[in-house]
Write a structure and sequence with these properties.
The protein is an alpha/beta fold and 155 residues long. Helices cover 32% and strands 19% of the residues. It has 4 helices and 6 strands. A 4-stranded mixed β-sheet has the order 1-2-4-3. It is globular and about 50 Å long.
Length: 155
Amino acid sequence: MPGSDNNRPLDRDPALPPGAAAEYPARDAANRAWLEAGFAAASAAGSRAVVVALQADMYYRDRCGRGLFAGHFAARAALAGAARAFGRPVLLLHGDSHFWLQDHPAPEAPNLMRVMVPGDGDTRAVVVTVDPAAAAPFGFALIGAEDRVAPPGCG
């Protein structure tokens, strides 16, 4: 799932490439089906936690008060609904806005934790540890030089 409003084409965009208008809804539906299948498999297996990794910062508008949102609306609802139904820890890993952030972006799914990894000038890596027996199974450590740490922002 890409950033920039899930690559949703804007009808008024004169540079809209051929096929873009049909690509977005098909891919968006496939993304939601992928989430549903993943959570169904985790539930069937009795998994203690789920990790979802994608590129997009789907919650940029919530944090910054601006930016496009419609392209991520259905996927956000699907993720929050699946996490809530799963009822155990869910970790969303993504990039896109390029600074370290750890929070719980969906009040309707308090078991959904989000980690945004650094990038684009902040070249630290994130080590994720998992202890399936722990109530809070995910741990995080940033490694790398801290001389160019990107501050949280809405750039």
